[in-house]
Amino acid sequence: MRVALFVPCYVDQFYPQVAIATLELLEKLGVEVHVPSNQTCCGQPMANSGFASSTEGCDTNFSKNFEGFDYIVGPSGSCILHLKEHHPSEKIRKSVFEICEFLVDVLKVKSLSANFPHKIGLHQSCHGQRGLHLSSMTELNEKPFSKLASLLDLVKGVEYVYPERADECCGFGGTFCVTEEAVSVRMGQDRVESHLKNEIEFIVGGDTSCLMHMEGILKRQGSKVQVKHIVEILNHA
Amino acid sequence: MLNHAEASEKFIADAERTTWHDETLWFVRSKRDKVSKLLPEWEALREQASLIKDHTLANLGQYLEEFEAKAQKNGIIVHWAKDAHEHNEIVHSIISKHGGKALVKSKSMLTEECHLNEFLTKKGVEVVDTDLGERIVQFRNEVPSHIVLPAIHLKKEDVGETFHEFLGTPKGNKDPQFLTEAARQHLRGYFLGANVAITGVNFAVAETGEFVVCTNEGNADMGAHLAKVHIACMGIEKMIPKRKDLGVFLRLLARSATGQLITTYSSHFAKPREGQEMHIVLVDNGRTRQLARDEFRNSLKCIRCAACFNTCPVYRRSGGHSYHQPVAGPIGSILAPNFDKSANVDLPFASTLCGSCSNVCPVKINIHEQLWFWRQDLMKDGLAPLGKSLSMKGMAFVFSSPTIFRMAGYIGRLVMRFAPFIVNNSFNPWFKQREMPDAPKESFQSWYKNRK
Fold first, then answer.
1. Which domain holds residue B416?
2. Do B76 and B217 belong together in one domain?
3. pLDDT tens-digit map of B193-216
4. Does any domain span residue B290?
5. B280, B314: one domain
6. DSSP label at residue B237
């Protein structure tokens, strides 16, 4: 099983700890992880802005880096969803996995050595949830489940809670966060507020982009609450 | 005209009202959740509705002709309008024939789309909207901000003021019961006096030539039953093949719209009563153009329940008027570019693509995917502002080259660490109400290189 780690561009530049935790976690689970060094971006920022026609160079670069692998695993539901839906290569579309999806569905992880004695608010990011179906959705008449939660259940000490309106969008939305700044921030403030009502210490999710947005709002408010990607919890000794 | 982002900013400036608007509509969404989960067959119903609509759209011409023939046999006069103007002319010619000076109209988003009120008013015909919410916005010279709850942007205080001005209710009275009674008394005169009533159509049944109008207030019935002439205006996509299909759609419509099990009135109009004249105007107005577009065809499945409005986190916080279109919300954002691409270029971008709209849609329209497709279509047509197309090309260039990407990232982080004022300023919309992320010393890739 040849596994490659896909590190979203902004994670590489601003949240290296998320990529490090993903790498370490996979290695702990006995996976030999390759990290293609010339990877850049999945192409989503352009495509969601209406410029899917300009992503050719980006797509080609992605293929060059990742075509030889059985599994391409990344810590971002949103980027993975984009690749799964829009990358021109069928091989790529079929090989990409969001990290939690990979742990639950492919590795079928049943135990972890993680310990995180804190109360956290679980943020189910939309693209992971509604796009990749990492968890059930409140709109649908379906049995409740969550791959993220099932992994957190394997972590010692952690207590996770959902905010009111469990799966409302945080308002990040890619370039939406600047082109529709007022709505984006208002959505983020509302989301943060409903998490804070639960007296949590961390907001935890599967998409660093949503977390970056909420972190920006938390910091501006002077809040002590921090954000963490779920892999940082799953990898926490 | 303000674009969606500008209009939303103005709306949100009133934080308290935004909270109220958001919570009120979320309450409606919650009611929808509750009743939809009481039906174990809910998802199967949605699937069935979707398939019926797919089938109908694929055979629309045939069903329309069947409907026309049956309706004519029933004694209904059928008209065809290719666009809004033709629709308005047809309606006006019917009114003129009967010497009508005033008419009562129940809710019809089609007539909003065609700007019928404006057209008739200019011709000297007084149009009285009889749906309470519509009457309120009509007094205020506004358009509906929601297709099911037209005055949802207004609080009872606002309604009290409006009624004080137009109906002479006591100043400061904001008692809903009292105000509703005032509206009833006010409307009653019009109901009794009007010789023409216009209604919308929720479903037109090809098999029988009948049409069904759903309301909670009974105003459509009151109008149609009292007037000598009943004109029903409908978009051609309202067709369903058989009467039994109503068993699917009527169960979905009210549950999705307001969380009711069924609308208070689901009235079937099959033929004119003795001495009455009944007309149906079948309107295209761009629908066949949309039908020919593979990516957007199934937007025509919409049954106008507004569930996508109520669930949309953007709509709830920006208000219906920010969409500057008769049909706002997610569904409006995929319908509007069909009418005018450049005037509505902002609407497909008024979304985070969270996908909640597609999940609540009772006929399973892939709304968020269509938003994405419209984005591509509009940008391909060159409708992006220059700055945006340049920055997108720049981004595409950076991401196509690992070397340039690494360099850009390195410089970016240096700037943020040592000269943060370059990004932390009022030119950066991110920074206006959010802190920038901390810039780490090294990227993951450079950490990984040293790790080996």
1. 389-451
2. yes
3. 999 999 999 999 999 999 999 999
4. no
5. no
6. G
Residues of B in contact with A173 (CB under 8 A): 351-354
Shared-domain flag, residues B64 and B149: yes
CA distance A138 to A114: 29
pLDDT for the residue numbered B339: 96
Q: Where are the domains of chain A?
A: 3-106, 119-234
Q: Hey, is the C-beta of A57 within 8 angstroms of any chain B C-beta? A: yes
Residues B80 and A173: their CA atoms lie apart, in Å, by 42
The verdict on B128 and B152 lying in the same domain is: yes
Cβ-defined contact of A12 to B39 (cutoff 8 Å):
no
- DSSP state at residue B321: G
Per the domain annotation, does B58 fall within a domain? yes
* Interface touch B356/A43, C-beta < 8 Å: no
Per-residue model confidence as pLDDT tens digits over B161-195: 999 999 999 999 999 999 999 999 999 999 999 99
Among residues of chain A, what percentage have pLDDT more than 90? 99
Tokens 């569930």 label which residue? Answer: B307
Nearest to A16 among B318, B372, B442 (CB): B442
CATH code of A119-234, in short, is 3.40.50
User: Do B230 and B268 have their domain in common?
Assistant: yes
Q: Cα separation of A16 and A166, whole Å?
A: 28
Q: Which residue has the higher pLDDT, B425 or B284?
A: B284
Residue B230, beta-bridge partner list: B197, B278
Instruction: Find the mean pLDDT for residues B93-109.
Output: 93
The answer to whether the CB atoms of A171 and B313 lie below 8 A apart is yes
CB contact residues (below 8 A), chain A span 137-176, against chain B = 137-142, 165, 167-169, 171-174, 176
Give the A window 200-219 contacts with B, CB below 8 Å: 212-213, 215-217, 219
Question: What CATH number does residue B29 fall under?
Answer: 1.10.1060
pLDDT digits (tens, 9 = 90+) for B298-324: 999 999 999 999 999 999 999 999 999
Q: What is the count of structural domains for chain B?
A: 3
Other CB atoms within a 10 A radius of the CB of residue A30 amount to 7
Interface test with B, best of A6, A18, A141, A179 (most B CBs within 10 A): A141
CB contact under 8 A, B392 and A57: no
**pTM over cut 0.90:** yes
Q: What does the alpha-carbon distance between residue A143 and residue B128 come to, in Å, rounded to a whole number? A: 48
